[in-house]
Model the fold of this input.
Amino acid sequence: MRRPRLLYVPFWATYVFLYTPIVVLVAMSFNAGESPYVYEGFSLEWYGVLAGNAGIREGLVNTLIVAVGSTALATVLGTLLAVGLARHTRSRVLDALGVLPAVLPDLVLGIGLLVFYATIKSTLGLHSVLLAHTVFGMAFVAAVVRTRLTHADTSLEEASRDLGATPFTTFVRITLPQLAPGIGAGALLAFTLSIDEFVIAFFTAAPTTPTLPIVIYSMVRFGVTPEINALATLLLLVSFTAVIVTQRMTRLTESLS
Amino acid sequence: MTRSTTSGASVRSRARRSRALGRLVFLGPGLTYLIVLLLIPLALLIGFTVFRRGRFGGVVYELTGENFTRLLDPLYLDVVIGSLKLAAIATLIALLVGYPTAYLIAQLPRKWKTIALVAVVLPFWTNFLVRIYAWIVLLSGPGLVNSTLMDLGLIDKPLELLYNQGTIVTGLVYSYLPLMVLPLYAAIEKLDPQLREASANLGAGPVRTFASVTLPLTLPGVFTGCLFVFVPSFGNFIIPELLGGGRSIMVGNLIRDQFLKARDWPFGSTLALALLAVLIVLLLLQAWSARRA
Done:
């Protein structure tokens, strides 16, 4: 097909726009100088400073606890929900409820949960962030698993049922193995999202249990330091790897568009 | 051999029971979770809008309409309208940049298509704060943009590129552009190329073909993309804070401040409800346009 030449301008502009800040950030993380803005030669100095920062270490540990816990919970709940919505109901209301956490503005979910925890007089801490992250993690797991379910062959499930297997047996022996790559990809997405999530954690974490994005937020607010460049580079590396792995495991770009 | 002796009726009732059990097992846990940690919190927020604030924060359960009349106070209304404006400008720019990009990606050979798409999505899956922070590094006084312009001799002293509304719009477009490209790509990809060929064969030029064939048929994708950019832009509070200079300039900042600073939960909830109302209207418009297409 004909590709109008003029379109190449906005096409390349998009990629330059998307990647310039990232490239600059990564380059500055290897800066030998004190300035976060002016490049003065290569060094790993700021990665060393980063490793010695206790606040960041603590944030990282909190983030990982929340991400691992909420991913585990979101994977189980999201997978069951995806199968339930695809195979056990035709309700469009329930369908909409399943995707609501993914379309609801994070600010609204964050303050809603803050108000909820206050109303039931629950303390805030890692548990409240973990439960909050499960809400949207579950929606993304369910979405990815459902894409996989719609591509799956239903004749095997029907055969299993016809041979007298209970829904539970059919699920464990037939459906689950077919869904495994989708579940894995969904779990990885939930994990990545939880690690990066800021707004909901901002409202549901206690001041004593900040997650890494909350630590970054307070650092950025007080000014730019080369140390954050190093941290940002490491986070970019983690996210890029996770997304590329997810893309290889499933048709990620398809299930999102 | 119990199976052969079981009557048809009890087989059917067993099937019905197992279907009900299946529903309970698969739908029960997830829906319960969503009811408790999503619907109840939302219901609380909506419920708070009709009550008075407590003197030291919290809520006094005394009915009042004052939260809604306060919404019309120019002080707050201006912020809401300003946010609508900034989000709309960001959405329009994302559409103008995103459409040609999505169009070209859809024409690429299969292998390059996937690579180009993943490359668009990658930044979106990286830490939001990191991406915003990168712009501070780039646009600050001694940053790359200013130093490049000075090296080129275009300016004598660094420009004030940070902390204005243009920077906020840049941050919004940067953050949500991938969400524009994906649905546009999906819509353009679905388009039958024969339709465009037919239009060309009938004598329409590229512009005419685009305006009367391509664009109308990809309109649902356009609406979805615009919604995906507008929704998170409208309620954002991090970008205005970090790139806008920290004053309450968008409705997201206002809501955040009502909850964490002013401790006026009923009014904060009312602002959040107003935000949701705008988004619901847009969602309905989008659903309506998708049904018509």
